[in-house]
Amino acid sequence: MNIHILSVIPELIESTFSHSIMKRAADKGLLQVKLHHLRNWAVNEYGMVDDYQFGGGAGMVMMCEPLVKAIEELNAIHSFDEIIYLTPDGERFNQGIANGLSLKKSLLFICGHYKGIDQRVRDHFITKEISIGDYVLSGGELAAAVIVDAVGRLIPGVLNDETSALFDSFQDNLLAPPVYTRPEDFRGWKVPPVLMSGDHRKIAEWRNEEALKRTQEKRPDLLNED
Ligand code: 6GU
Q1: Taking a C-beta distance cutoff of 8 angstroms, is the pair 144, 13 a contact?
Q2: Span from the CA of 73 to the centroid of ligand 1 (angstroms)
């Protein structure tokens, strides 16, 4: 998969993609993340990419021209499956959206700043708008990092144990069950005996029950989603 990110501060997320699972994905050739500096398409030699909003009001708006030039130039080369604008008024990101995006070949993420981008770019170029939650970030970069991480680890072959993403919290609208490691007894706090039983059917049953219990306690809203 190829992921391109268009931003006025690409430095903010550069290092996110050079560590851990994201690095492994890149090393295996399964995921390439390329950052693009919007100022490369600025309207003048001062690097101008934003301007005052029509109608008045505080806050700058990212201009059509740099965004459209960048999108058209990059899309001509990479022909994106989705051009995604990161914005607090987008669709709320979740595991289902991550699953969908992990099946795509080529994505462009556009990070907004200030008051956002000129509505005409949204109307004519953006194919999907995503928010990562009900709070306001100062730019889309951290949201892009969150989404690329969630999507990247779903690409087949990225995780060592290919099945393990299937058991993640949220994958079946269930939270993950409790986990334990050695020692079996720490300060008298013992690991549930079923996990030491070697009975894989019983262990699977226990994990399902615990996942359900935990979801009922912590996130009952998940059980009512489809
Ligand atoms: Cl995608 N962008 C910004 N600026 N703020 C956010 C967000 C995105 N998602 C939640 N808050």
Answers
A1: yes
A2: 25
Residues 40, 70: contact at Cβ < 8 Å?
yes
Distance of CA 12 to the CA centre of its chain: 15
Q: In this predicted model, what pLDDT tens digit does every residue of 170-218 receive, in sequence order?
A: 878 999 999 999 999 999 999 999 999 999 999 999 999 999 999 999 9
Best mutation site among 7, 85, 87, 134 for ligand 1 pocket (most ligand atoms within 8 Å of CB): 87
| Domain ranges, residue 133 | 2-152
Q: How far is CA 53 from CA 60, 116, 117, 152, in A?
A: 6, 10, 10, 36
Tokens of 157: 């072959």
- Domain ends where: 119, 152, 185? 152
Q: Are strands 128-131 and 106-111 parallel, antiparallel or unpaired?
A: unpaired
Is the CB of 87 inside a 6 Å radius of any atom of ligand 1? yes
Cα 115 from Cα 86, distance rounded (Å): 12
pTM of the entire predicted model:
0.94
* Same domain for 147 and 181: no
Does the CB atom of residue 111 touch ligand 1 within 6 A? Answer: no
